[in-house]
Amino acid sequence: MLRESATVVVARNETWRGSASTEPFEAGWAIEAVIFVRALKAPIGAMPEVRVEVSPDGIRWLPEGTRFALPAEEDAMTMARVSHFGNWLRIAADLHADTELTVLVTMHLK
Amino acid sequence: MMAANDRIIFTDRGLSRFDPLSRIIAFDDFDRGGCGWTQLTGNYEGSLDTMLPGFAQITSPMLSTLGHWETGSHGGIDGSYALKLATRPDRHALSVGIKRLTFRKAGPIRFEFYATFKPEANSLALSQRDIKSIGFLFDLQSGTEDGERVMPHLRYLNANGDTLQEKWQFKRHRPTISDIGDAGETVSHFHLADANWEDLPGGGQKLCYNEIPTKVNWHYVRFDFDLATMQATHFQCNDRVFDLATFDSIRIAAMPNLWCMLNICFFVETNTDKRGFLYIDSACLSGDF
Q1: CATH code reported for the domain at B4-287
Q2: Residue B90: is it exposed, middle or buried by C-beta count within 10 angstroms (0-12/13-18/19+)?
Q3: Chain A positions in Cβ-Cβ contact with residue B33 (cut-off 8 Å)
Q4: What ipTM was assigned to the predicted interfaces of this complex?
Q5: For residue B149, what is the enclosing H or E element?
Q6: Which domains does chain A show, CATH number per domain?
Q7: Tens digit of each residue's pLDDT (9 = 90 or more) over B50-78
Q8: With an 8 Å Cβ cutoff, are B67 and A29 in contact?
Q9: Which residues of A touch B40 (CB under 8 A)?
């Protein structure tokens, strides 16, 4: 049987301001994830790093340890590879005041 | 009409819990993966900003073992995984999953599934009124150019505001159709708005919510529809069969790119600012051909 594989859009045309995160996603069947963040519009202001977070229940979250840049210009992309994340997975960032980023976030799981 | 049970001795225990017609069009056991159920997106042109807000909020379905903070994975009926639809944590938030097919014969079809619904278990309370509704719909269009686009909708209105409702409703009111973009080629209509739902006569039904948000019981639903007459012929949930004498579907003019369309959607809507979850253990679509 072929291995299960899925491309999932976890944030589509969402504008991040302040503390922002993707909605909780369950991927316990997968052993690896590649996460892409694409800027759908020109970012306003300097972007902080984004962090991968994991959770025992989809309610309480901890940093997984992986951090990566957010895209700095329109249509730019950044990405990270993650494994051993358990079941629940999301990315989160704390944007500086008066900054914003409109994102397309996809997870590629297998 | 021949049922598959009349001619087949099922060796598949998953399929044997259904009563399909003679042709299995799709048997979706989510222990085998996502089975072609995907995120519903609204129509757009030029920019995603042109998408109607009701569609923009919709999130992606996922495979879930129904893991809970104090009891762990609940699992499915006879496997580990179910398809999960999750809303955002806002009152009146909605999420929709869709499977897109076309039909090869305009005749009777039957859609059966096992489902359950729960709010996010983030408070130590019964939480029975936190889900507003769960439901399903077909999005159909005739294969003949004098035909219609027909969208039978059914939802279980669980609660509204502070009040449990516990009744089935249908929708036949035609939604507003909006132009999308400037090219004159794209339109959109948000047919799942919380307006113009009508009570199914005799449609009250108490389900097995259970006693806390993390105890889960599966329910059986069957809906029969005739693609020749574009009429619903049977609706059942668990041990109750409902009278469809007053039931009708949303009916709009045929659209230029949707001939023989056979789409199926599930949806879940919140009544509070907690995420709402609809889980589908398995589903079977069958036809009489």
Answers
A1: 2.60.120.260
A2: middle
A3: 4
A4: 0.97
A5: strand B148-151
A6: 6-109 (2.60.120.1310)
A7: 999 999 999 999 999 999 999 999 999 99
A8: no
A9: none
